[in-house]
Write a structure and sequence with these properties.
- By secondary structure, the protein is α/β, with parallel strands linked by helices.
- It is built from 15 helices and 18 strands.
- It has three domains: 172 residues, 3-Layer(aba) Sandwich (Molybdenum Cofactor Biosythetic Enzyme, Chain A); 68 residues, Alpha-Beta Plaits (2-Layer Sandwich), CATH 3.30.70.2860; 167 residues, Alpha-Beta Complex (Maf protein).
- α2 runs parallel beside α7, α8 crosses α9 and α10 packs parallel to α15.
- The longest helix is centred in the last third of the chain and has 20 residues.
Length: 425
């Protein structure tokens, strides 16, 4: 069945509210073998009519969100009833539920609120335990095809439980035995999107009934495969064989989740010393549940004086080589390793820009170091000439991937990287 989604609400188009409905509903539908073929967002008002009329011409299942409230711009139910050729009538059960909700809150119910009890004749009411406007389900036959129309509230706190608890079971009955596909997402680090495609694309597309897609993001590429379990196993083997250590995760886990899991698996603990990333690596790590078992400390040493006082970096070293140098990066990592009594320590020092660069060290230059007990410190140089926020993300990706590959006893692979043996600990 073809599925189309219509999100209504002027606030969505003004940017005042982030539209999260598509991502949520698409993920909920996929296990049923259903995929949203088209999504459109329209403002409140008459634009809803054109969008619904178009979807009714194409889709067997139409999902609409928003416009079910009590105000004058909430006209989704009226437009839908008109297009389907049915009248609205007050539903006593819905009105009682609304009245009881207002009574519990000690609020007087206005005539405008009662509009939400208007139900198209023949529609099924989807109760709303988290708001006053109920959802509605209508079935209509057009051009000898049965159309299934779901009108759902806009606020996520109302939509999400209604969709999961009421709509999904109804859709399961509509599409029994649907050939549900499986989707697997792989996180690739250290290789660009075009190179990833060159390495795996032709081999995977040679597999029968497989869908392959790529999504490039700063510092990584996500590879998406959709198909039957048997076909996906063949695709995954190609990805493992071709991409090797560049494959950071097979279950769509984030890089920080992978690092925390690998540290926990080995019962090792980490510290970080950050200059140009300003604590961003520590933030990413501590966002992972269970990080407290592996993360000891984070030092944000933005100023040179802080590098000296907190990490015992020799001021003469900074004077001789500059704060942005492989020597200082190594000393920062080693200082954090000692100060926190950690097993591993990462450090970052670089030039985020837009000013501060030189011919030898242009804007975007960064040094990432990894110190570990019982081995020499590694230092990698990268160049990320971009905006400050993206710069911090890219540097954190490089640092976390350096640690991940070290934990897996695999060397990093990057055309931008320059390694220099550091000092032992």
């Amino acid at each position: 069945m073809r599925v189309e989604l219509i999100n209504t609400g002027t606030e969505l188009l003004l940017g005042n509210t982030v539209n999260s409905h598509l991502a949520f509903m698409a993920q909920e539908l996929f296990p049923l073998g259903l995929r949203i073929q088209r999504q459109i967002t329209v403002p409140d008002g008459e634009a809803i009519r054109d969008a619904l009329r178009e979807s009714l011409e194409r889709a067997e299942i139409v999902l609409m969100t928003g416009g079910l409230g009590p105000t004058t711009d909430d006209i989704t139910r009226e437009i839908t009833a008109e297009l389907l050729g049915v009248e609205l009538a007050e539903d006593a059960t819905v009105l009682q539920a609304i009245s009881e909700r207002f009574a519990r809150r000690g609020i007087a119910m206005t005539e405008r609120v009662k509009r939400q009890a208007q139900v198209p004749r023949g529609a099924s009411v989807l109760s709303n335990a988290h708001g006053t406007a109920p959802g509605l389900y209508m079935k209509a036959a057009t051009k000898d095809v049965t159309r299934h129309v779901f009108l759902l509230p806009g606020p996520p706190r109302e939509l999400v439980p209604m969709f999961r608890n009421l709509v999904i079971p109804m859709l399961q009955d509509l599409v029994p035995g649907a050939a549900a596909s499986e989707c697997r997402t792989y996180r690739i680090v250290g290789v660009g999107e075009s190179n990833v495609e060159a390495m795996i694309g032709d081999d995977i597309l040679a597999i029968e009934n497989i869908e392959l897609g790529y999504c490039a993001r700063p510092g990584e590429v996500q590879v998406r495969c959709i198909g039957s379990p048997a076909m996906l196993e063949r695709a995954e083997q190609i990805i493992v064989d071709k991409l090797g250590a560049c494959l950071a995760a097979r279950d769509n886990s984030s890089l920080e989740q992978v690092v925390v899991a690998e540290l926990a698996k080995r019962e090792r603990r980490l510290a970080v010393a950050e200059s140009c990333t300003g604590g961003f690596i520590a933030n990413r790590i501590t966002n992972v549940p269970g990080a407290s078992a592996v993360f000891l400390a984070g030092f944000v040493t933005y100023a040179n004086e802080a590098k000296t006082s907190a990490l015992c970096v020799d001021s003469a070293l900074i004077e001789a080589h500059g704060a942005v140098s492989q020597e200082v990066a190594a000393a920062m990592a080693e200082g954090a390793l000692r100060a926190a009594t950690a097993d591993y320590a990462l450090s970052t020092t670089g030039i985020a820009g837009p000013g501060g660069g030189t011919d030898q060290k242009p804007v975007g230059t960064v040094f990432v170091a990894l110190a570990a007990r019982g081995r020499s410190t590694e230092v990698a140089r990268y160049s990320y000439p971009t905006d400050r926020e993206t710069f911090k993300w890219m540097v954190s990706q490089a640092a976390l991937d350096l640690l991940r590959r070290t934990l897996l006893e695999a060397k990093p692979v990057s055309s931008q990287e320059h390694r220099t043996p550091g000092r032992g600990n």
